[in-house]
Amino acid sequence: MNYKLENVSSCTKKLLFSFENLDLSTEIKAAVVKKQKDSNLKGFRKGKAPLAMVQKLFGPQIENDALNSFVQGQVFTAINAEKLRVVGYPSLSNLKYEAGKNVSFDATVEVFPEIKLKDYSKFSFKKDSAVVTDDDIFNVKKNYLSSRSEMTEVKDASAKISKGIFAVINFQGERADGSTPENMKGSEYLLEVGANTFIPGFEDGVIGLKKGDKKSLELIFPTEYHMAELRNEKVKFEVEILELKEKKLPDLTDDLAKEFGYLSADDFMTKNKEVLKTQKERQVLQDLHQKILEKLVEENKFDVPATMVVAQEKYLKEDLAKNLKQQGFNDAMLSEYYEKWAKDLTTKAEFQVRSGLILDTLATQFKVETSEKDLDEKFSEMAKTSGLSLDEVKKYYKGNDALKKNLIYAIREEKTFEKLREALKIA
After folding, report:
1. Which pLDDT value is given to residue 169?
2. d(CA 131, CA 19)
3. 79-111: per-residue pLDDT in tens?
């Protein structure tokens, strides 16, 4: 054995290699043949130049390629021999080479930690109830019926603004320095109160006002507002209520329900209650699982590979960028956002890596496996709650290996949580 294994930490190992009387003839021959295939020398068709000529012209490069091939081969041979569960790629250092005599180098690798979980059987958790309320049902009906609604003026002069009411307003904002920017001004603007389209406090501030009322609102722009120069700044809005409107929703008739793809109004209500119940139950389980993960991470301390945290943080940033760009963020604003919340992103990434490793350990402990039957059941569930046909769901996932792989991983997690819930005290 031409190497020694050092434990840098529970997640980092270093392999120290040393070879005397090194013979790279095999590797050099392989490198010459490879170079020959890629060579396009004058007087010869590509890949047809004599091996001797190729070796003469590209000698140093070929020897370097041969050395790299030897080094890589030795590293991965040692990794397999030591049965190291490597994360990412080895980092090479301290390479010393004397042609025809010796070579020495170090290879540092990160590995999955060996996790021994503490006894979790005595942990207790409370599971919320999955109750479908009348408001939930109303909101579903509202979403469907909104496209058929009619906007009408509120005739009652004494009517007051409440959530759900549309107010036609004039407004003008004044900054702390006394300026009144045009982008803080609106004329005959239709505001849906309760939709949270304005900064916090604005819509709540007009609740209770009537047609013809005027009011000054003293507010503060949010810390995460998309315009950096306005963040945390105090502003005063002068608001005038011109008119109140409301959306009149039609009654849900059998004919209208059929237009939405249901058999009748009763069928609409029954099926949507089932969907809401399924969604509520899923959310309740997600909340419970989050509590369980937080407890397990808190109780089990271990090193995590930095490579995994960096990769997860990159994924979080990419996912966040998609959402923020939809809100109008440009690259400069994204960079500023990342800088401000860097610590939070790293903390979140580390938690996700730790919880993922714990779940993987539990899945192995519970001998959890994912089958094609599990996939088919998940496809059926998704079709039921998404409104898509079963064939559409299958086509979406089976046509994308990455999506299918992620779904299989998610199913494995779900099955692991099922086993875990049986082992915990849940009220």
Report:
1. 97
2. 69
3. 999 999 999 999 999 999 887 788 999 999 999
- CATH for 200: 3.10.50.40
User: Phi first, then psi: what are they for 281, rounded to 5°?
Assistant: -65, -40
In which domain, by residue range, is 38 found?
3-111
State mean pLDDT over 243-251: 94
Cα 50 to chain centroid, rounded = 53
For residue 177, give both structure tokens. Answer: 């320095």
How would residue 303 be classed by pLDDT, with cut points 50, 70 and 90? very high
Contact 145, 255 (CB under 8 A): no
Instruction: Report CA torsion sign: 17, 22, 25, 28.
Output: positive
Same-domain pairing of 220 and 336 = no
- For residue 51, give the nearest of 29, 24, 26, 23 by alpha carbon: 29
Greatest CA separation found in the chain? 100
Is residue 201 in some structural domain? yes
Residue 140 maps to a domain: no
Number of domains in the chain: 3
Q: Are residues 237 and 290 in the same domain?
A: no
d(C-alpha 189, C-alpha 255), whole Å: 35
Q: Judge if 260 and 343 occupy the same domain.
A: yes
- Is residue 121 in some structural domain? no
Looking at residue 42, what is its pLDDT?
A: 77
Residue 183 tokens read as 């982008």
**Helix (H, G, I), strand (E, B), or coil: what is residue 364?**
helix
Tokens of 219: 């507010």
3-class SS of residue 367: coil
Q: Residue-wise over 269-278: b if at least 16 C-beta within 10 A, else e?
A: beebeebbee
pTM above 0.85, yes or no: no
pLDDT level of residue 386 (50, 70, 90 thresholds)? confident
